[in-house]
Amino acid sequence: MINNLKHNSIIDLLGSIIVKNMLRARCNGELGELTKSINEHRSRPLANPRSDRERFRDGPPEFSSLDALRVLWHARSHRADLDRTMALLADEPSRELLRRILAYRALGPRYVNLPSDTDNPLESQPQATACMVGPGDDPAFGTQLYRMGDITIEAWPLNIWADFFEQQYVFERDGIRIAVEPGDSVLDLGACFGDTSLTFAAAAGETGRVDAFEPMPRQVEVIERNLARNPALASRVHVHRLAVFDRRVELLFADGGAAAHPSHAGTIKVPTCRLDDWIRETGVVPTFIKMDVEGAESAALRGSADTIRRYRPKLAISAYHSLADLTGLAPLIASIQPDYRFYLDHHTTHAEETVLYAIC
Predict the structure, then answer these.
(1) Which of 315, 357, 360, 303 has the alpha carbon at shortest distance from 337?
(2) Which SUPFAM superfamilies match (predicted)?
């Protein structure tokens, strides 16, 4: 154990030295702006860090030189993507937010507060708690039953908070709105419990349609129960037990609850589809695509290239699963359809729930 501690201390020391040298190096362009932002935050530790106590039960984590090294190394080795993403983002709030998110990932919550409408979204959920009407039907999942106006949903408190209070798939800023509207044809890719599908169905109205893609069997069971509880909306929602990818294969998934993802150590066999193939086979014409597929976003987008190029749907794409997604998804989409305008927003006080919105 002592040897392990010494080994970790040496690695941390070396990481700190490398980080200091990287932060001292002169850089131009967006890498220079990011380095400047990290240096400014690093020089001013926060007196009152905005830390989610449900996420960090022992308080905000200490600075990790390895985290900082990971961010700086990525920014340097993917400098062209960083420059391109900043150029593609259509407003200064989006560009400043991306710098802030990267600084947070480098320094942690003791140095950078991430924007959110509430100081502690995972803990401060009195609105969601007030809407709870009973337990869910799967004790192992720990879901609860909520009544949200005319909609009854089995989900977790965070789902209710994100869908109904934070409304994380509705973007509104300076007269720009990217959201599901009446009559929209929505693809909910990574539907989890179907909570987003039901909110989309309500927003799309009687003339709208929602196709919900969710490959995990237990999650699909919750979706089906939620549809049965909401017959007025259920007719608009069509469930597909598929994962979206860049080719048709059978993947092994690890069951991580809401964060189920492809893994060599997985035990659940999941069929995948290319969205372009599915669109050709079904004739569905999407006008809004929401995507939260646990790190497979770039593959799913590549498999959706013809659809995006031809139909130019509104997009709400989760961008928080990796540094590569934060700096690479916008250039990927722009290479498919250059008419998109991009905006970024963030919906928690920690690293999760960054959404890239796009509209033509």
Answers:
(1) 360
(2) S-adenosyl-L-methionine-dependent methyltransferases
